[in-house]
Write a structure and sequence with these properties.
The protein is mostly helical. It contains 15 helices and no strands. Among the domains are: 30 residues; 116 residues, no CATH class. Helix 10 packs antiparallel against helix 13 and helix 10 runs antiparallel to helix 14.
Length: 363
Amino acid sequence: MITSKTIALGIAKGIGILVLAALGLYFLYQIQAVLIYLVVAFILTLIGNPILDFFKRRLKFNHLAATIATLGIFLLMIFGILLMFVPLIADQGNNLSLLNTAEIEKNLLELLNKIALFLESHNINSDSLFKEADLSSKLNFSFIPNLFNAIISTISSFGIGVVSVLFITFFFLKDRVAFIVSAKQLIPDAQEEKILNSLDKIYTLLSRYFIGLLIQLSIVFLLYLIVLLIFGVQNAVVIAFLCAVLNIIPYIGPLIASVIAAILTMLGNLGSDFQTQMLPLTIYVMIGFWIVQLIDNNVTSPLIFSKSVSSHPLEIFLIVLIVGYLFGIIGMIIAIPLYTILKVFGKEFYPENKIIQLLTKDI
């Protein structure tokens, strides 16, 4: 029989659960930096494990020496970026006025005026395209300096973050066996084999994925840079860098990169004639970027997104599209790793399911 006391206890219990959940979320929000350190350290561990195994198997290092050598490679990469790449990016970013929103908006208005004069010289009414639509007031390119500032800030203000990430990564690499043993003690005996098999497959697939992703971004950056240097575009390094970073976002990122490259190319050549110099140069750059994206979409990306995580390109496209529609840009970035994890667990725990059999036949 339900009494008022039972109802009151139920309400109190529900309120208690909600309060605890809210406190838990607030706690996670407060330690979000630590969570980011853990995620970055985990990714570095996935990338570093094959390197560590190379030192152990091929060079006969003991485990501690291999761990230190792997961490040394990460440190050399970090210092190389700091000493060589960041000053060049920062210097060219200042030249391009990417750190000054007001300046880039002023340059954008000047560019729109040039486009308007070009259209009018070809008997096209620019008023209907710009003035009536009030295009200049609706366009907001503050995301460009914000993106650039975020990248530079993340790279240049390492400090405690870098030390923390490397410290965590060191112990993830050094004590990975101990972590596995500890995890076994927490896993129910009935599910131990399935869970450990899943974690082993996830480790292998995600290691290949993140290493491949770094290689892809490096290749795309070099190809973008070559295109920009061939056509003598000013600030080629920073434009190539920004556009390469955007390739982290599957499918949509390269499209955004092309638009940004076109805009920044024109903004960097405002002193030239629009019809004879600026417009042809921008078209050539766009064609070059499309060729790079064609190479990436048909060679680099399939090798990374399909081979590394054992999924069909159409399957990957649909998953990225669906998760991106539900959760936005962040969803698109994490869609492939998350989908890979779910596929592996699905194969281990529901091997008889026909749909899972079809999706995981290559795992």
